[in-house]
Amino acid sequence: MSKNLTQLLALLPGAQVSGEAAQKIEGITADSRKVAPGTLFVCLPGARVDGHNFIAQAHKLGAVAAVVEKDVPVPAGMTLIKVADSREAMQAVVPFFYDYPGRKMRMIGVTGTNGKTTTTHLIRSIFMEAGYKVGLIGTIHILIGDRMLPVQNTTPDVVDLQSTLAKMADEGIDYVIMEVSSHALELGRTAGCEFDVGVFTNLTQDHLDFHITFDKYRDAKAKLFRQLGNELSVKEGKHAVINTDDASAQALIDNCSCPVLTYGTGETDTIKAQDITIKADGARFTVHGPFGLMPLQLKITGMFNVYNTLAAIGTALAEGISASLVKKALEEFRTVAGRFELVDEGQPFAVIVDYAHTPDGLENILKTAQQFAENRIIVVFGCGGDRDKTKRPIMGRLAAQYGDVIIATSDNPRTEDPVAILADIEAGIRQGLKDGKGYEVIIDRKQAIAKALQLAEPQDIVIIAGKGHETYQILKDKTIDFDDREVARSVIREMR
Ligand SMILES: CC(=O)N[C@H]1[C@@H](OP(=O)(O)OP(=O)(O)OC[C@H]2O[C@@H](n3ccc(=O)[nH]c3=O)[C@H](O)[C@@H]2O)O[C@H](CO)[C@@H](O)[C@@H]1O[C@H](C)C(=O)N[C@@H](C)C(=O)N[C@H](CCC(=O)O)C(=O)O
Ligand SMILES: Nc1ncnc2c1ncn2[C@@H]1O[C@H](COP(=O)(O)OP(=O)(O)OP(=O)(O)O)[C@@H](O)[C@H]1O
Ligand SMILES: N[C@H](CCC[C@H](N)C(=O)O)C(=O)O
């Protein structure tokens, strides 16, 4: 893949260029560590460091030109392109550089606070059942067919995203199912994507450290729906699929200029779930839709998974997949790693590892467990550092409200002091405690999990929340191996 710099400059009206413009560009990156000969290096001011500080390093590795938004010195021989906003410049040139791969495949974007990963996997299973070649981009991994690639972000930045899409297009992928985070929408990571279907799961509190207010958080999500069917689109047949049981539904619908399929439990929804039974081994319900009635017996459980399933059905309907294929795929769907994942070493109590890391996620998982708990619910949880601090006391209160035994511990403290994070959580636990219930704060996550498992009695449910599929823990500048499922398994074995 290569382009001439003059072609890229044509997309940057107003850019001031000094140095050679007519030269071949073999790649674009905003990370000096990824520069190869012939690269265009884009300098982005970041949250931690400023990309403008790495021009010399980029040049040494072979960068031939740099996009900057500040007055900085450049090494002799390097072409300098000064723009008003280097992130916007990158968003303009990168999709063009990769020949707009998002236009060559059907693109499904799923956004919402919770449920994106589960919903994208449900959609993937339906489209694979229908015989399509499917790519998936999300929190756990990127999948090209069955080939797995690692990820850093839920929604990759524009270079990684467009290069991944180009790879998918080259390999004949028909459908890309993608999690679209609010960070991505706000930072323009999805520039040039051209979504065909936009799916909304729900909106509850998270990421207020980044978006500051809930209204701004909602507005970031709305961008996905504004992008559908806008005047720049080159594709046809766009749809929005929206959960009307969520309070933000109307605000998002107001941003759609394409047809909207609604889902939920309301009479007027296009796709609605009725006669819902939530059992430990799965949810059962009947879906009413334009296809008639579809009784479903799922292997995944919880009301939240009923919603995720409806979102997947809405997407399939928008893309014309038959109800019988949808039913087959959904009833065979087992689980997503770290989402309500059972750890079974033959112990006489249940152990569930779940990725609930928001107030709504935690409440849902605890409510679901309550629906079939025969004995106590023991909850081990924490909150991430360098993330929304205001969710910590709320999660503490919810754990105290729904749990019988509460153990607060560290999640990924990142650069924060774990003791300070736990103090924020503890304030909420104290508010939520009733009936003389106690709680424990154990900083070390392994010790906290061990304590929960030692306290467990027959028929108890131990819920280990927050890290789900994660196989690491981020402590200051160290990332250590840590997997809640492995830790729980080894503790149970040692207890024997
Ligand atoms: C706040 C945020 O979104 N940060 C993202 C951002 O990093 P940053 O601004 O800290 O970058 P930086 O380290 O300061 O570097 C600035 C620039 O200098 C460059 N650099 C840096 C070092 C060097 O040696 N050379 C060099 O060129 C960097 O490549 C970058 O262009 O750009 C990076 C590269 O694209 C992202 O990986 C990083 O995500 C971090 C890891 C992150 O944790 N983001 C979270 C908040 C996030 O985006 N989460 C959402 C999911 C939310 C949800 O699921 O609801 C997501 O989509 O993942
Ligand atoms: N529709 C839903 N509504 C509320 N909570 C949900 C829903 N689906 C899943 N959850 C809860 O949220 C957790 C995370 O689910 P999932 O990974 O599907 O969401 P996500 O939006 O991809 O999260 P993230 O982008 O932060 O990784 C689950 O483990 C579960 O506890
Ligand atoms: N996408 C979320 C994941 C949080 C997972 C939790 N384990 C944490 O580290 O806070 C975020 O980046 O905020």
UniProtKB/TrEMBL annotation:
It is found in: Cytoplasm. Residues 24-94 form the Mur ligase N-terminal catalytic domain. The keyword Nucleotide-binding applies. Residues 338-468 form the Mur ligase C-terminal domain. Carboxylation is probably crucial for Mg(2+) binding and, consequently, for the gamma-phosphate positioning of ATP. Catalyzes the addition of meso-diaminopimelic acid to the nucleotide precursor UDP-N-acetylmuramoyl-L-alanyl-D-glutamate (UMAG) in the biosynthesis of bacterial cell-wall peptidoglycan. This is UDP-N-acetylmuramoyl-L-alanyl-D-glutamate--2,6-diaminopimelate ligase. It comes from Anaerospora hongkongensis. The gene is murE.
